[in-house]
Structures are given as structure tokens and as C-alpha cells.
Amino acid sequence: MEVYCGAHKPCPYGVGISNPGYWGMNIEQGKRYKVVYHVKSERKFDFQLSFTGVDVIKVASSRRHVYGDGKWKRVETIVEAKTTNHYSSLQITTTREGSYLLDQVSVMPLDTYMGHGFRNDLFQMVADLKPKFLRFPGGCYVEGNYLRNRFQWKDTIGPWEERPGHLGDVWNYWSDDGIGFFEYLLLAEDLGALPIWVFNAGFGLNDEIDTSSIESYVQDALDGIEFARGSPTSQWGSVRAAMGHPTPFDLRYVAVGNENCWQTYFNYQGNYLKFYEAIKAAYPDIQIISNCDASRKPLNHPADLFDFHTYPSSNDMFSLFTKFDNTSRSGPKAFVSEYAVKSDAANGNLLAAVAEAAFLIGLEKNSDIVEMVSYAPLFLNINDKRWIPDAIVFDSYQVYGTPSYWVQKLFIESSGATFIDSTLSTTSSNKLAASVIIWQDSSDKKNYLRIKAVNFGAAAESLDIDLSGLDSNVQQYGSTITVLTSTNVMDENSFLEPKKVVPQTSPLEIDDKHLIVLLPSYSVISLDFLI
Predict the structure, then answer these.
(1) Where are the alpha helices (H) located in 163-289, listed in sequence order?
(2) 184 closest CA partner among 235, 133, 148
(3) At 61, is the secondary structure helix, strand, or coil?
(4) With CB atoms 3.0 to 4.6 Å apart as the test, which of 45, 315, 347, 420 could cross-link to 436 if both were Cys?
């Protein structure tokens, strides 16, 4: 920043820089924010901080005046907002003529989740899903268009200002890696979820490492595992401990690459075996996930799980309800780590959500072979629609869940539940899917029989339920019915109508073990019978 004042000493007004962050900074009345920047100059400097459209007062600062010596100085200031602007910009100005270098500028609210930097409302949206695992740091983001732009975990740890950052060239944005390997592990821990680390296996989208030269990548993966779960006295475990987390993270799963077992790549099998052998030798308990699809034919290499990704149309997603019915039970289990309706989902509509519910019922029915499933992608900033749809949509201060998000909430209790054999008989429709589980409410220890049913057809259907085969008695009161549907199959949620398409729950009185329930067109229902 070159500041010229002409004949005036000092300048008659502040000269400087302005930045809106990610499409506007949410500065709210009564809240405090930490502003950090690093500056280097040969002369004394004195900067003023302000936010567009907001009045703030300085609460604390690490320094008022800084004497220039040509060395980087870190300046930290705490400000409190007296007014609100959801789309503010930070301004750093000075009236002193001179040449200044600024780098690593940040504004963060002080009230992040547990002080770990995660926005409270976004964190809560994920926590409400009660996730059992978090797969990170992404898919193609792991690889890069070219390996030089891959996610390199060692460059994403340590002090934020010392992280070099990298170009996410697949999605064409720069990441300063402020959320890096450590922060992802921390996020999983805060969510009470197991971390699943996807590491680079020697592949970019347009280049790859020959198996004969893969050793440094293998060692990098071993170092990453040691960072996550090694002793605080080990080489990389000590780095984690120095970052404030001496206790090892509970890393039990790793994935060798992302979508690399394709015909366009030549070295996946060889590279995979190098990683598998080295990791199993050092950490025999770690579950290793292969990119190769074993849903139709067995793998030709050892694995604990295999990866399955799908982004079909809604019709094709519904037909995947039976995808794993004939998968071999003698091989590794399936990890459906990326799924979503893509082509006709628009920004995330009811049509997509209903089809995905049928797919999830199919996975539930095949849970002896399908161990884990996760929707992808998780988040979308509404200002940057490079990939739609996504489960959770946000801007600087608002957030809502798409219908697909709400479908996932209907499957929370499936984890750890008991699957019950049932039969769905129909002569009128091939657009129905259903499953039955027994689950226990952790809050009151009551047991429920849950019937989930999907109607992917344009006509309403009557579901005739016969519970006479149950060993347990169904209570007359305490049961509920939850319905997810809308007046138009293309309906979406939005900031203006965040709950336009959400599940609606009402009490259900049971008179006997036989009842008839109406399934609206394009709907998902969940019946919980207290037993």
C-alpha cells in the first residue's frame, strides 16, 4: 500500500484498503470481533480500523503505534459493534505517508463454537444431524487439477499466518488453509463424530505419480496419522500437542485417494497397495477405504471398505433403492461417501429429497454391507454456486437446510437401530419404498418401531399397515407420524421461506394393530409406534 499525501503532512483524510470478506462481513450490534493483520514498513505507522455501515469502538489492542524496522509486526485489536450491518467491509486506513506491506488480515467473531472458529449457527445445523463421522477435506479438493495444487496437510498446520495457503484449482478459489488438517480433526471431535481423512494417493485430475515414486506420499500419510493419533512425545504428535491438543484424536478410518480407481489412471492399484501395506504395518487397527467400486464385482486387492459415489437424476436415484441387494457379503463393506440428486434437483427441491429418501431406505435394508453414508456437498455459500445442490445453504448471517437436509434428519435414529424384516406388497405402483426399524430414544429410554415409506409417484397411495406380527404391544398413545411433502414437487427452501419444505409431526392414536395411512404424492413419511 503506497500512501501519498502530496503537500499535506499528514494526509487530510484516511487512505487505505477495504475488503468485504466473503460477500460481506456480518457485524452485529453488541458483539465483539478480533481483527488481526500483519504489517511491515520502514517507517512508523499508525492504522485506523473501521467497518462500512457500522459504528464500532476499540476495546483492546496489542499496540497503538508501531515503529517501522522493516520486520513483520502482528497487530491485534478487539472491537465491539454499536450497530449492525450484515454485509460490512473492513477498512484499514492511515494518514501517514509511506509504503506498507500488509498480509494475513482477518476478522473473526469472538463467539464461535467453543472458541474454535466455527460459526455457531452453521455448526448447530450439522450437530442437529447427529453425525457419526466427518469425511474431509473433500473430494477433488484433495487432488487438485494438478498435484502441485493438492491439499498438503503439513502446509495447513501450525500458526495461521505461517500457512502458505494453496490454490484450489478444481473449484478455482484460493484457500488460506485457516481451516486445515488440525481444524478438521477438531471439528469432528466437537461434533462427537469420527474423522475420516481422505489423503492424496499420488493423483491430480490431470497428472499422477508412478508407483515406483510414491514413497514420499506414503510417508506423508503415515506422518499425518501420527499427527492425528500419535503420542504427544512422537515427532508429529508433539506438533499437535504444541497446537493445544496433547490428547490424540480418534482417527480410525482413512481413504486412499478420491475417485482415482478409474480407467483414466494407470497407477491406482499399485499406489493403493503401497499405502495399504505401510499403514497396516504401523496401524493395524485403522480401517482403509479403497476408491474401487465392489458393489458389482469383488476387488482384486485387500480393503476394509470401498467407496461409492453417485450423482444421478431423481428417477435414477430412486432406482438405486436396490443397488446393494446383490452385492457380495464376503468382501469389504460399502462407504457411500458422496450421493445427491444432481440434474433435476435445481437448488435443492422436494423431488430430489424424496428420491434420496428411497435410496437411503435401500441402504438401510442393506446395512449388513453398507456401513456408512454421507450426503455431499455439505455447505453452499449462496453467493458462489459452483456446485448445486447442497445440504446447507448460508450467507454472511443466514442459513437454511434444503429438503435433502431434512430427509437426513429422518434417518438419524437408523444408526444403532435394529432392522426388522417386513414386506411391502403393491399391485398399483412401482414408486414405493419402505423399511422398518426398532430404535430407542436416548432421552427417555422408550422403544419405538419406526416405519419409513416413500411415495415417488404423482398419485397419492394408501398404505395398509399390519402390525400383528409384532411380539411387542403397540401403545395406544405416544406414537407419532411425520410427513415431508409440499404442494409442488419442485418446491425449495430459501432465506425468505426456510421452512417451506420441512417434516411436519403430529400425534398418532393407535386403536389396533391394523391401520391405513395416506401417502401423498412425492412424499416421505415416518411413523413412530411406541412399543
Answers:
(1) 181-191, 215-229, 237-242, 268-282
(2) 133
(3) strand
(4) 420
pLDDT digits (tens, 9 = 90+) for 102-130: 999 999 999 999 999 999 999 999 999 99
- Residue 426 CA to residue 454 CA, distance in Å, equals 13
Per-residue pLDDT of 476-510, as tens digits, reads 888 999 999 999 999 999 999 999 999 999 999 88
- The radius of gyration of the chain's CA atoms, rounded to the nearest angstrom, is 27
pLDDT at 63: 64
CA 323 distance to own-chain centroid: 25
Mean pLDDT for the stretch of residues 288-307: 96
- How confident is the model at residue 363, as a pLDDT? 97
Residue 129 phi/psi, 5-degree rounding, is: -80, -10
Residue pair 421/438 in contact by the 8 Å Cβ criterion:
no
In 3D space, the residue among 295, 316, 306, 350 whose CA is nearest the CA of residue 483 turns out to be 350
Domain boundaries, the chain: 2-109, 419-530
Cα 185 to the chain's mean position, in Å?
Answer: 12
CATH class of 419-530: mainly beta
Residue 94 identity: T
Its CATH architecture, for the domain 2-109, is Sandwich (2.60)
List, in order, residues 6 or more apart from 495 with CB less than 8 Å away.
Answer: 382, 395, 398, 400
Q: How many CA atoms lie within 13 A of 361 on its CB side?
A: 30
Please state whether beta strands 479-484 and 461-466 pair in parallel, antiparallel, or not at all (unpaired): unpaired
Burial of 126 by CB count in 10 Å (0-12 exposed, 13-18 middle, 19+ buried)?
Answer: buried
Determine contact, residues 490/425, Cβ cutoff 8 Å: no
Q: Which of 183, 208, 259, 371 is catalytic?
A: 259
Mean pLDDT of 256-280: 95
Q: Which long-range contacts (CB under 8 A, 24 or more apart) does 497-500 make?
A: 498/398, 498/400, 498/401, 499/400
Q: Give the chain's mean pLDDT.
A: 94
Q: pLDDT, tens digit, for every residue of 341-369? A: 999 999 999 999 999 999 999 999 999 99
Nearest CA among 85, 76, 79 for reference residue 56: 79
Residue 250 phi, psi dihedral angles, 5° rounding: -90, 70
Q: Please give the grid coordinates belonging to residue 227.
A: 499427527
Helices H, strands E: what count in the chain? 9, 31
> At 469, is the pLDDT very low, low, confident or very high (cuts 50, 70, 90)?
confident
Residue with cell 456446485: 387
Is 2 annotated in the active site?
no
* pTM value > 0.90: yes
CA atoms of 24 and 187, how far apart (whole Å): 24
Q: Is 319 helix (H, G, I), strand (E, B) or coil?
A: helix
pLDDT at 60: 83
Q: Same fold for the domain at 2-109 and the one at 419-530?
A: no
C-beta contacts of 421-426 below 8 A and 24+ residues apart: 422/451, 424/453, 426/461
C-alpha cell at 346: 435445481
